[in-house]
Amino acid sequence: MVGVHKEELIKLHKIMAEIKDSFEAANPDYDFSDYYALKIDPSQVHKSKMEHKHAIFVLGRDIAEIMADSEPSASKRISARMDELARKTQKEIDYLS
Hints:
Elements: H1 6-26, H2 33-37, H3 49-67, H4 72-96
């Protein structure tokens, strides 16, 4: 996500949040607790670019984990990569704080 503007990240965050909402509407038992713990949503434009990027990776991981139930092989790899990126951005946020 090098060279991506904050506004573009916020748009992507919004789209992924809508996907999350669709999953939750279909099955309220899906777990997005890690995302909710971040206390950030796409409407919070005052949050940093890094915080939105981190939220995207956490949501991506969670969505991929849910999708892994129907297509395990590809979704597991995506989930693992998103988790790796989420951890990396969390370290960057911690370093900058």
